[in-house]
Specification:
This protein has helices at residues 12-28, 42-48, 54-62, 85-95, 119-122, 162-178, 193-206, 219-228, 240-251, 292-304, 309-324, 342-353, and strands at residues 2-8, 34-37, 65-70, 100-106, 126-132, 144-148, 151-155, 182-187, 213-218, 235-238, 261-265, 271-275, 327-328, 338-339. By secondary structure, it is of the alpha/beta class. The strands form 3 sheets. Strands 2-1-3-12-11-4-5-10-8-9 form a 10-stranded mixed beta sheet, with helices on both faces. Strands 6-7 form a two-stranded antiparallel sheet. The longest helix is centred in the first third of the chain and has 17 residues, at 12-28. The relative contact order is 0.16.
């Protein structure tokens, strides 16, 4: 297995280094994984004048999977739009055709106190958001800012083709089948034609999965329901922009955005794995970040791309164990637990793995 490692910016290099420790531990037991690093985002711009350098994209294409830290930083915010770190991330998703983004939100019982919601609302939480990742208003044409009737207008296009909806529907139904067999499709079909088509295609695909109970919800209501009573959901499927927003909301249920991994998959389960949080420039380089989302992303990599659920379980269990042992990075620290640094957390996971 060949793995492209793209640390990126901000806390990216620190958290990825902890995930690499876990991979090295598995290698030392004989796992055949080859790691190769390359810059992306602001680091790509600094190294090659491009947030997705040619060589990085080539490496990612040739690899079986990609592990990504995070991109972005204030020093890049004034660059021309195509040169900004976020564009590198959007381009690699598109170039590798990673249309299905899996964002689980689950709560470790010990962290219920770290959530801003009441423990009874979030305890035992386990939901999966499937976000379409290569279409929608993120990539739709036309887009731009231009002058019309003497003033500037900004515009983007929300667009989905049937085939785009269908392929992510199949992924979502497949995941729902392996989970609680309940799928909620989220759109805004009371207002948007694009959503009307989304809903029709979901219903059509649903006929091939009679065991899965399909429901539909408008995105505004879904945002409310996720906060009100999240345990009503099992698997959710939604478009790119709605999924971006809902997954941040859902992340708060789990105590900290620093706990949540993600997988972005193509048709053949090749994937890019990244924590759902950003580059956190304010704490970068201070050894304070929570590496668990990145380590859990490695577990997802074993589950989805390497088809090795035993190793995935083992990594997830090691994380559960360090949480149970009371180790906490600053973002999930509560009184009576033991505050550790990013690298100490990585070491603790490696120890628990053995
Ligand atoms: C995410 C992020 C990205 C997105 C940004 C950084 C472009 O918010 O992965 O959710 O909007 O998709
Ligand atoms: Mg986001």
């Amino acid at each position: 297995m060949k793995l492209a490692v793209l640390p990126g910016d901000g806390i990216g290099p620190e958290i990825v280094a902890q995930a690499v420790k876990v991979l090295d531990a598995l290698k030392s037991e004989g796992a055949k994984i080859e790691l190769e690093q390359a810059p992306i985002g602001g680091a790509g711009y600094d190294a090659a004048g491009d947030p997705l350098p040619e060589a990085t994209l080539k490496l990612a294409r040739e690899a079986d999977a990609v592990l990504l830290g995070a991109v972005g930083g204030p020093q890049y915010d004034t660059l021309d739009r195509p040169l900004r770190p976020e564009r590198g991330l959007l381009r690699i998703r598109k170039e590798l055709n990673l249309f299905a983004n899996l964002r689980p939100a689950l709560l470790y019982p010990e962290l219920a106190g770290a959530s801003s919601l009441k423990p009874e609302v979030v305890s035992g939480l386990d939901i999966m958001i499937v976000r379409e990742l290569t279409g929608d208003v993120y990539f739709g044409q036309p887009r731009g800012i231009e002058v019309r009737n003497g003033e500037r207008v900004g515009f983007n296009t929300m667009i989905y083709s049937e085939s785009e909806v269908r392929r992510v529907a199949h992924v979502a139904f497949g995941i729902a089948m392996k989970r609680g067999k309940k799928l909620c499709s989220v759109e805004k079909a009371n207002v948007l034609e694009c959503s009307e088509l989304w809903k029709e295609v979901m219903i059509e695909v649903g006929k091939q999965y009679p065991e899965v109970e399909l429901s539909h919800m408008y995105v505004d209501n879904a945002a409310m329901q996720i906060i009100k009573w999240p345990k009503q959901f099992d698997t959710l499927v939604t478009g790119n922009i709605f999924g971006d927003i809902l997954s941040d909301a859902a992340s708060m249920l789990s105590g900290s955005i620093g706990m949540l991994p993600s997988a972005s998959l193509d048709e053949n389960n090749k994937g890019m794995y990244e924590p759902i949080h950003g580059s956190a420039p304010d704490i970068a380089g201070k050894n304070l970040a929570n590496p668990l989302a990145t380590i859990l992303s490695v577990a997802m990599m074993y589950r989805y791309t390497f088809a090795d659920p035993a190793t995935a379980d083992r990594i997830e269990n090691a994380v559960k164990q360090v949480i149970a042992q009371g180790y906490r990075t600053a973002d999930i620290y509560t009184e009576g637990t033991q505050k550790v640094s990013c690298s100490e957390m990585g070491d603790a996971v490696v120890k628990a793995l053995n």
